[in-house]
Amino acid sequence: MTSRVCYSVRRWIYFGAFVLGLLSPATAAVDFEKEIKPIIESACLSCHCEENVEADLRLDSLEAALAKGERGPAITPRDPDQSPFYTRMVLPTGHEQIMPPDGPPLDQSQSSRVRTWIAEGAPWPKTVKLEVRPRIDFVEHVQPILEMNCVSCHSGEEPDGDFDLTTLKAALESGNSPPSFVAFAPEQSPLYTLTNVEKDDATLMPPVDQGGPLKKEETETLRQWIAQGAIWPKDIALKVRPKSPSSSPSPDDLELVRKIHALIVERSQSDSASKSADYSAKVPQTGAPYHMVALEGGEFSMGSPDGEDGREDIEGPQKRVQITPFWISKYEVTWDEYEPFMITRIERFKNGARKDYDPARHTIIDAVSGPTAPYADMSFGMGRLGYPAICMTQHAANKFCQWLSVQTGHFYRLPTEAEWEYACRAGTTTAYSFGDDPAELEHYAWFIDNSDEKSQKVGQKKPNPWGLYDMHGNVMEWTADQFVPHYFDRLKSPATSPFVRPETLYPRSVRGGGWESDPERIRSAYRLGSDAVWQQQDPQLPKSVWYLTDAPWLGFRIVRPVEVPSVEEMYFYWNSSTGKQ
Fold first, then answer.
1. What is the per-residue pLDDT across 24-56, written as a single tens digit (0 to 9) for each?
2. Which residues contact 485 (CB under 8 A, 6 or more apart)?
3. Cβ pair 107, 100 in contact under 8 A
């Protein structure tokens, strides 16, 4: 959902404020059709109607509810304590006569409305007809919809439109025009009404480019949930939940990755190139050159020793790690390679899907998501030709890898933390790949003392022992891992090709230090986790999934493992940020 929706919502009177305890149930007349009917239809009617009369109680009409059966009427107007319709609602949990018998007990806000309605004389218009409705449970039915479609934009310290959907209290009190929903009144609840507008309506939430509109059954679930009292257990806080690939409007889904995987497997079977040889290639669509260095697998001590100058606790204790063979790019990815991926004349949804995508006339490459048009010069004047590409999200770096893979028939991805440090150390055990003396840094790295406060062209300093340039300094580099402070406590010794699969958007691991870093922050073992403040100045709402306005010191390099992974692994590497932004 997007903040522009919030600005379009008019203020309304919150007559359902009893949910917050601001009004007592007795202060206002209860509307049978809006407040009692949904409760009967969803929680009672299936067992207490003409076709199914349990406990000699009927609730399918007022006449039936007032009829004196063997156990008396279901409702005694103006006397809720003599009305089984009410008294059985408030029995202790687990009581054999509690109503409804299945599912969680009715909420106090629901039973209190029933009590008030009966005390007022149980007014029940004869023209109102009842029909059995499904009972909506928040945890089972509503929570997944909100977590997959809403919470990513409406949570955190700066939720879109100042509108927070992570807890009941926040949902009712935050935003420019709170609340987001009015109990028993779906037509007065933006959480429902704005999911039910036309697809091209600017107020639709979630908008089309964020996966909207919701399925009809999802909007109906929200409507019925609100109509039944909008019960949201106070102890439940929502978290972002990734959407399944099938729910995305983008053609960049698991099926696309299956096709790419088949191409890569076919290419690997016919590829006569040595798995231990360096190679140079060009991006097929653009002709931009790139260079890959072959690294044999091996074992190394990951992390820094206790006595290393500048060492931080999150860099150890050191563990022995086994790495399988792979290629890694000789230089950081440059604007020459990345800019043609980033800047095109193609109109895209915010998720990167082409607005004009047509499987009948577009190629497999066209189905890969790509960045929306940048809203600023993302090089920030530091230089383009031969300079490292900067300011991309990890998602953007992942998608570049997918875009390159489709064209070349080779699987490219970001390096894991372990692969990155293995490549950076290049067989050394010292603080830097050239030794322990930071006075030598000026020969190997661009950092705070010599960078002139900007990134520099790649490959100008000395390489490490394995021929890799700018592993120390110039720009920090994305890795594929979730950043965890106690990374080394998770590792067995020896560990084989460890990878911390990301589960949340922040923090993700970056390595290598950048042009603004002090010497101790460009050591081989230095680690850092990404942060939402790296996107603080992004003017877009919701924040872009492609650009990090406040990270002009961050770029990436790519790897190609010798072994081709499975379809599912390939999909995860390229989409580990999907649904989490």
1. 333 458 999 999 999 999 998 888 888 777 767
2. 313, 314, 529
3. no
Give the residue with greater pLDDT, 247 vs 299.
Answer: 299
- The winner for highest mean pLDDT among 145-159, 182-196, 299-313 is 299-313
Residue 17, pLDDT above cutoff 50 = no
Is 17 buried (19+), middle (13-18) or exposed (0-12) by CB count in 10 A?
Answer: middle
The domain locations on the chain are 17-119, 135-243, 254-575
Q: pLDDT tens, 82-120?
A: 999 999 999 998 888 898 887 788 999 999 999 999 999
Q: Residue 299: what are its φ and ψ, rounded to 5°?
A: -110, 140
Q: What is the DSSP letter of 33?
A: I
The residue assigned the tokens 């360096």 is: 278
Which residue is it, tokens 């949201």? 232
Spatial separation of the C-alpha atoms in residues 368 and 557, rounded to whole Å: 20
Taking the C-alpha atoms of residue 575 and residue 580, their distance in angstroms, rounded to an integer, is 10
Tally Cβ neighbours within 10 Å of residue 569.
17
Per DSSP, the chain holds a count of helices (H) and strands (E) of 14, 13
Fold of 254-575: paralog of FGE (formylglycine-generating enzyme) (3.90.1580)
